[in-house]
Design brief:
The chain contains 6 helices and 7 strands; from the N terminus they run ααβαββαββααββ. It is α+β, with helices and mostly antiparallel strands and about 270 residues long. α2 crosses α4. One of its GO terms (molecular function) is protein histidine kinase activity. Keywords: ATP-binding, Coiled coil, Kinase, Nucleotide-binding, Phosphoprotein, Transferase.
Length: about 270
């Protein structure tokens, strides 16, 4: 190629490259401008999210403080009620009156323990069922002090929880049943108090595993006349009313000696316990 032709070619190529650069430059500037706008929007979004996060943190902190205050007031209210009942018991003129105050105080303590168990569970408005049942049984055992009566716990479902709306009546029922058993079912001072929590052999209507709670005795049992007396007492009336609320059952099972063993049972479906 001659020198003249090479110079012409270089001029044409150079002109083409320069033209290309000139044609792309406005678009490049526009792209840069759009990127800057997007960057500004992202920075603004980040700042907004940071502010919102701070607001949420403050809100959570405020709610935590409020919740702690509510817990404190609820506990104080339980203590005030218990103190009033203790005053009533101490000022009662008749032993039967004092006993009524004591029984009511025990029921209040059971309700307070449901609340305590809820706080310890770490799950809002949930209570660990096995832990609650063990507490009620142990508290009754140390209150009555019948060393000849043995408590059998058959509860392997330690991670089973239920809502407070079920836990409260359930705890009150179990407390009443255990109190009845200690008072009437072990006339010779010996026997077994059984507390069971286990998967049911049947499934619930949706095909999920159901769970059964049973509280019963294997002592000498109660007589027919004692059974008739119990049916008129506040404890059994309370048991039956609460059973109708949560779907439990309270029955007397005939023994070989002609007496009756007391049994409470309830089946819990997946919506009630999980």
């Amino acid at each position: 190629m001659s020198n003249s032709n090479k110079k012409i070619r270089d001029k044409i190529i150079g002109l083409g490259e320069s033209s290309a650069r000139k044609s792309y430059y406005p678009q490049l500037l526009e792209n840069i401008r759009e990127l800057k706008e997007e960057r500004a929007k992202l920075i603004e979004t980040v700042h907004t999210l940071e502010e919102r996060e701070k607001e949420l943190e403050n809100l959570v902190e405020e709610k935590s403080i409020l919740l702690e205050e509510v817990h404190h007031r609820v506990k104080n209210n339980f203590q005030i009620i218990s103190s009033l009942l203790n005053l009533g018991r101490n000022s009662a003129l008749l032993p039967s009156e004092a006993a009524n105050f004591s029984e009511t105080g025990r029921r209040i303590q059971v309700m307070a323990q449901v609340y305590e168990r809820m706080l310890h569970s770490g799950i809002l408005l949930k209570v660990q069922i096995a832990e609650l049942l063990r507490y009620i049984a142990a508290d009754a055992y140390y209150s009555v002090k019948k060393p000849g009566v043995r408590i059998n716990y058959r509860m392997n479902e330690n991670q089973l929880f239920c809502g407070v709306d079920l836990a409260t009546p359930l705890a009150l029922i179990v407390n009443e049943v255990i109190s009845l058993l200690y008072s009437y079912a072990f006339s010779d001072g010996s026997g077994e108090l059984n507390i069971e929590l286990a998967p049911d052999t049947a499934m619930d209507s949706a095909g999920n595993t159901a769970y059964t709670i049973r509280v019963f005795d294997t002592g000498p049992g109660i007589t027919e006349s004692t059974k008739e007396v119990l049916e008129k007492q506040l404890g059994v009336i309370l048991i039956r009313n609460l059973c109708s609320q949560i779907g439990g059952s309270y029955n007397y099972i005939p023994t070989a000696s002609g007496n009756y063993n007391i049994i409470f049972s309830i089946s819990l479906n997946k919506d009630q316990a999980a």
